Amino acid sequence: MEIVRAYFRSPPAVIGLILLLVVIAMAVSAGWLFPRDPLALAGRPLVWPFSNPRFPLGTDNSGRDIAAQIFYGARISLLIGGVATIIAVVIGIVIGAVAGYYGGWVDNVLMRITEAFQTLPNFLLLLVLVAVFGSTITTVIVAVGIVSWPAPARLTRAEFLSLRNREFVQAGRTLGLKDLKLIFGEILPNALPPVIVYASVVMAVSILLESALAFLRLSDPNVASWGNLIGLGRDVLRVQWYVSAIPGIAILVTVLAVSLVGQGLNDALNPRLKGR
Amino acid sequence: MRIFSLAGRRLAASIPTLFLILIGVFLLLQFAPGDTVDAMMAQMGGGDAKTAEDLRRFYGLDLSVSAQLGSYLWRLVRFDLGFSAIYGKPVATVIAERLPATILLMTASLSFAFFFGLILGVVAARGVNKWPDTLISTVGLIFYATPSFWFGLMAIVVFSIYLQWLPAGGLSDITSTATGIWAVLDTARHLVLPTLTLGLIFLAIYLRIMRASMLEVLNLDFVRTARSKGLDETRIITRHVLRNALLPMVTLIGLQAGTMLGGSVVVESVFSLPGLGRLAYESVVQRDLNTLLGIIFVSALLVITVNFIVDLIYARLDPRITSGA
Predict the structure, then answer these.
(1) pLDDT digits over B34-76, tens only?
(2) Which residues in chain B are contacts of A227 at CB distance < 8 A?
(3) pLDDT at residue B61 in the model
(4) Are A243 and A173 in contact (CB under 8 A)?
(5) Residues of A in contact with B28 (CB under 8 A)
(6) DSSP letter at A120?
(7) Residue B232: predicted pLDDT
(8) Cβ atoms within 10 Å of B160's Cβ, excluding its own
(9) How far is Cα A138 from Cα A128, in angstroms, rounded to an integer?
């Protein structure tokens, strides 16, 4: 409970949590507030925000309700951020844990692969993955997860390197615990907190990666994604700039919220690092 | 010379990494539905199976995967990246045409982000937890959360459409016949918005790292010694703290080189710059896999080169690396 109190003592962390809750509320209430398909035509195209009470945020190039797309877009962004992060963190933990625990040639091989992934610009790799496997929402999510695992892997490995020869691990070894049990049952729980905190960075980057992909029209065109809407608005940027402006603010707020919560957690868990 | 041998050894160590990347991506591309010939046929508006077969034989696509991989790697060793069916030129030529714009953009953005990140980080660290620090940190957080392509679009709306101060895209004015210094200035004008757009997120990261490492170094013993000697604060910062606080910043350049290249895909598309990033996007859309592989090869080389330079700078900043172990 000390951690919770420490978290709520920091104003930015509280603001981040509130913003995140707002985005979650948008995602949850989307179906209830906008029962119709957000990608269905709703009215005249390019209605400016606040000019027609039926469309508080206006309509896009083809007359689809922007407010509905923003609310449904929250679902997509949170889905992508959440699932891609879980994929990246799970791959990263497994590879980092095995590399750090065994060391030697296993570590060498795994770190070479990690290095290869880090040498390759991750957005380029994402483009290749989408070009090869197509751009349904599932493949995009998996692809974003696949390009994001190296950093969590390195973090996990570093934790394992510092933990693997501690007394409690040696005690476990003397008791005859199997490697797998030692890695996932004993060491991992101790190595996890910094990795979990880092997950907020992965999540923020995942949301940004997908929105960039959608902006380039390489993500799933059949879902209401904020990036899609920005890409669409680009065609009418000269006069109807609001079509691109509104979803961009939604992305900004979401990424900001995730980052603030992550930083708040970090400060609460490691009071020593506060103020850095 | 020690610096060079040290960095050279690091460079040699990256060769297996490079091969790993190429083999991995090559195998990945085998999963791609359709190949270059399909794309060409589609562009030509269809054709019969016989032509397709001839074309496949011509491009060596009828061989087994391992044979294709072997011949691809052998050609790469000789720096032959193959032929781009879409552009009708050797891939190496296509990439060489596009590389300067990307390197220009990356260098400009990196310098912008590094320079202002450094200054803002120092200012924030010196007024830690006072209003300049709060302001700078907040702005940094917002920059970090801003999608670069969106920032670019909004910058176009404000600076190109409404204020009409800066061009909305391209690398130079097509209608201008300027030469010499005026041509350079024209290109510089075109690069302002792309540089800001690509540099913004890195500026946010650099200022955060600079602030943290300044705070750390300011608490070290030698700073206390310098203070007790009666040195004035500006001198302590410039002569003693900065050099040490810069180390993490320099490391970050190497780590972020790949991210920056990835970011240039989006930024070059927003500002229609004829660079490598946009080429990557175009080759994905047109399924020009040869070009895509070539771009990945060149990007990996670029990242490795940046890291080599970073190693050299690092060794200069921190003499401990070259002396002793």
Answers:
(1) 666 666 666 666 667 777 777 777 766 666 777 888 887 888 7
(2) 147
(3) 67
(4) no
(5) 128-129, 132
(6) S
(7) 77
(8) 18
(9) 16
What angle, rounded to 10 degrees, do the helices at B242-270 and B180-218 form? 140
Of B258, B266, B292, the CB nearest to A119: B258
Contact by Cβ (8 Å): A239, B133: no
pLDDT at residue A275 tops 50: no
Which helix or strand (DSSP H or E) is residue B38 part of?
A: helix B36-44
How many Cα neighbours within 13 Å face the side chain of B157?
19
pLDDT in the model for residue B324: 45
Q: Can you read off the two tokens belonging to residue B320? A: 């401990």
Tell me what pLDDT residue B325 has.
40
Quote the CA–CA distance of B109 and B164 in Å, as a whole number: 22
Q: Do A123 and B300 touch (CB under 8 A)?
A: no
Residue showing tokens 């709306």: B157
Do residues A78 and A24 lie in contact, with contact meaning Cβ atoms separated by under 8 Å?
Answer: yes
pLDDT in tens, B164-217: 787 777 777 666 666 777 777 777 788 888 999 999 989 999 998 888 888 888
Whether the Cβ atoms of residue B43 and residue B287 lie closer than 8 Å to each other: no
> How far apart, in whole angstroms, are the C-alpha atoms of residue A244 and residue A250?
11
Whole-angstrom Cα distance, residue A126 to residue B265? 11
Query: Between chains, do B149 and A215 touch, taking CB under 8 Å as contact?
Result: yes
Whole-model pTM: value is 0.88
Hey, what amino acid is at A156?
Answer: T
Q: Residue B297's closest chain A neighbor by CA? A: A120
SS (H, E, C) B72-123: HHHHHHCCCCCEECCCCEEHHHHHHHHHHHHHHHHHHHHHHHHHHHHHHHHH
The CATH architecture of the domain made up of B98-318 is Orthogonal Bundle (1.10)
- Residue B24 contacts A, CB cutoff 8 Å: yes
B residues 269-298 lying closer than 8 A (beta carbon) to A: 269, 280-281, 284-285, 287, 292, 295-296
**Who among B144, B215, B280 is closest to A259 (CB)?**
B144
Q: Is the pLDDT of residue A22 over 90?
A: yes
pLDDT at residue B322 in the model:
59
Cβ-Cβ contacts under 8 Å for A210 (sequence gap 6 or more): A76, A77, A80, A84, A140, A141, A144, A219, A225, A227
Least confident of A172-186, A249-263, B2-16: B2-16
Once rounded to an integer, what is the mean pLDDT over residues A233-262?
Answer: 88
- Minimum CA–CA partner of B298 in chain A: A120
Cβ contacts of A205 within 8 Å, gap of 6 or more: A148
Token readout for B87 is 């552009």
User: Nearest CA of chain B to the CA of A170: how many Å?
Assistant: 31
Question: Which residues pair with residue A55 across a beta bridge?
Answer: A52
Residues 6+ apart with CB under 8 A from A166: none
Domains of chain A, earliest start first = 81-235 (1.10.3720.10)
Please report residues of A whose CB lies closer than 8 A to that of B150.
211, 215, 230, 244, 247-248, 251-252
Q: Where are the domains of chain B?
A: 2-90, 98-318
Query: Can you read off the two tokens belonging to residue B93?
Result: 């030529």
